[in-house]
């Protein structure tokens, strides 16, 4: 009798597991891990996107902030998450640099299921409004006269603001001192507290510029930003660099194609909602759609390109 009871319980457990596995996706909340702290441009825009997608897909999409390590922690979290679509993550550009600078046992191209690219950042370099550095020429002149003494902060080592600033410095022949922070909020506090002379960041610093606390020296897009019409692009300054650091959403390797498609379709529709476009507009960001297939191709191309950048800057880890 005891054995029969155990057998019945086991069969019930198997049946329950099978029934759960057969439930259509999604049947419970989805976790979206993002790479930067609460309150910054990434957090605010991704929360709006998640809210929109939740209504479309029929389950809550809960945002979890996991800042640090140059924005690569969410992608690392995918490596141990079940491949069922219930854990997804923001994939910043820094993920594609990781193997060249850090010893890891996974491949950013092969070990992530790429769902959809959604946007990219608008970047620039800014200084305190009361700084004696009034424009980019002043910045370069000070740096040349004081090698390694001009301090600037970014949202982390090996992030796009960090590496792009180092590339700019290399091109104009200056040496800067980089100080990494976990996110835009910490970075803003540091520069306003006079712990830094400049910041390289996304235009989440716009409210501080509008409040008269920061001054923008340049921006990094193809064209000047409407919000900062007096700030020249890098190209206008004779620096042939454009950086907008596209990012999107990935899932664990092996996530079923039908689950990836369901996530893709929900996020694509969510991107088209006016609320998301408005949230992006606060930070001069634009929708930048890539399908799952195109995003996977972008991952491969970017992985190759970033290797060349890391090597050019002399930042590759010893083999």
Description:
The chain is an alpha/beta fold and about 325 residues long. The chain folds into 2 domains: about 160 residues, D-Maltodextrin-Binding Protein, domain 2; about 120 residues, D-Maltodextrin-Binding Protein, domain 2 (3-Layer(aba) Sandwich). It contains 11 helices and 11 strands. Helix 2 links the parallel strand 1 and strand 2. The longest helix is centred in the first third of the chain and has 21 residues. It starts with a helix and ends in a 7-residue tail after the last helix.
SSE layout:
Layout: H1 2-22, E1 30-34, H2 41-57, E2 61-65, H3 73-78, E3 87-91, H4 98-101, E4 112-119, E5 123-128, H5 136-145, E6 151-154, H6 160-172, E7 177-180, H7 184-192, E8 198-202, H8 206-210, E9 214-219, E10 247-252, H9 257-271, H10 274-281, E11 287-290, H11 292-312
Parallel strand pairs: 1-2, 1-3, 6-7, 6-8
Antiparallel strand pairs: 3-10, 4-10, 4-11, 5-8, 5-9
Helix pairs in contact: 2-9, 2-10
In the CATH hierarchy, the third-tier topology of the largest domain is known as D-Maltodextrin-Binding Protein, domain 2
* Largest sheet features: 6 strands, mixed
% residues in beta strands: 15-25%
Helix residue percentage: 40-55%
CATH H-level name of the largest domain... which superfamily?
Bordetella uptake gene, domain 1
**Terminal Cα separation, in Å?**
63 Å
Unreliable spans: 14-20
Number of domains: 2
- Structural class of the secondary elements? alpha/beta
Q: How many DSSP H or I helices?
A: 11
Shape: globular
Q: Return the string of H and E elements.
A: HEHEHEHEEHEHEHEHEEHHEH
For this structure, what is the CATH class of the largest domain? Alpha Beta
- Compute the CA-based radius of gyration: 22 Å
* pLDDT averaged residue by residue: 92
How many DSSP-defined strands? 11
């Amino acid at each position: 009798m005891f054995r029969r009871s155990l057998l019945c319980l086991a069969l019930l457990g198997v049946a329950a597991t099978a029934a759960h596995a057969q439930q259509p996706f999604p049947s419970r909340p989805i976790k979206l891990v993002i790479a930067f702290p609460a309150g910054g441009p990434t957090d605010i825009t991704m929360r709006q996107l998640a809210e929109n997608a939740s209504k479309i897909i029929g389950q809550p999409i809960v945002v979890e902030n996991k800042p640090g390590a140059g924005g690569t922690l969410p992608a690392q979290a995918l490596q141990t998450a079940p491949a069922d679509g219930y854990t997804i993550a923001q994939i910043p550009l820094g993920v594609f640099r990781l193997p060249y600078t850090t010893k890891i046992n996974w491949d950013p191209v092969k070990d992530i299921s790429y769902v959809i690219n959604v946007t990219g950042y608008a970047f620039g370099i800014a200084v305190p409004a009361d700084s004696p550095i009034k424009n980019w020429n002043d910045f370069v002149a000070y740096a040349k006269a004081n090698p390694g003494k001009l301090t600037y902060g970014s949202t982390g080592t090996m992030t796009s603001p960090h590496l792009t600033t180092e590339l700019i410095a290399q091109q104009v022949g200056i040496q800067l001192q980089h100080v990494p922070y976990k996110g835009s909020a910490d970075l803003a506090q540091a520069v306003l507290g006079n712990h830094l002379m400049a910041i390289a960041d996304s235009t989440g610093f716009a409210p501080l510029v509008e409040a008269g606390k920061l001054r923008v020296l340049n921006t990094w897009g193809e064209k000047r930003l409407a919000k900062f019409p007096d700030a020249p692009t890098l190209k206008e300054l004779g620096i042939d660099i454009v950086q907008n650091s596209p990012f999107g959403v990935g899932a664990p390797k092996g996530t079923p194609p039908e689950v990836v498609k369901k996530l893709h379709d929900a996020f694509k529709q969510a991107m088209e909602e006016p609320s998301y476009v408005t949230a992006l507009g606060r930070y001069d960001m634009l929708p930048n759609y890539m399908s799952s297939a195109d995003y996977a191709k972008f991952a491969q191309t970017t992985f190759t390109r970033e290797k060349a950048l890391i090597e050019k800057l002399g930042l590759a880890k010893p083999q």
